[in-house]
Amino acid sequence: MKREILFRGKRVKDGKWVEGLLTKDIKGHIRIQYNPRYFSVVVNPETVGQFTGMTDKNGTKIFEGDIVKEKHKVHERIYSIFWRNDCFSMSAQTKHISYYLDEIVSSHCEVIGNVFENKELLK
């Protein structure tokens, strides 16, 4: 199955999130091109994350840097999504465990925030 290549980042101008293709301008600024007419905006490079190709139980796209809650039967855990060893992974900060993202059933997960705005969710 072919995965959609998509990135997300916060605009430098106003801090709003944008999704699209990742580019760099001639000045070296990281930009996200977010509409078919090739309009792009400068984003904060520290907030850029790639789409994992998965959605949560609500259909929300899961990006690198997202915080997800997995709830299945008797357990509930909070994970952060990151890229490691050439694949997306998720790690539960409080339990010191990690999984490859494709080991998790996305219908048991819900995006509840991201590591840039909601770090307190990982405590």
Offer a concise description of the structure.
With about 120 residues, this protein is an all-beta fold. It has strands at about 5-10, 15-25, 30-35, 40, 50-55, 60-65, 65-70, 75-85, 85-90, 95-100, 110-115.
List keywords for this structure.
6-stranded antiparallel sheet, mainly beta, 123 residues, 11 strands, SH3 type barrels, 2 domains, 50% strand, 5-stranded antiparallel sheet
Characterize the structure shown.
- It is a single chain.
- The chain is mainly β and 123 residues long.
- It folds into 2 domains: 7-47; 52-122, YopX-like domains (SH3 type barrels), CATH 2.30.30.290.
- 0% of the residues lie in helices and 50% in strands.
- It contains no helices and 11 strands.
- The chain has strands at 7-10, 17-24, 30-33, 40-42, 49-55, 61-63, 66-72, 75-84, 87-92, 97-100, 109-114.
- A 6-stranded antiparallel beta sheet has the order 4-3-2-1-5-6, with no helix packed on it.
- The protein is elongated, with a radius of gyration of 15 Å.
- The mean pLDDT is 86.
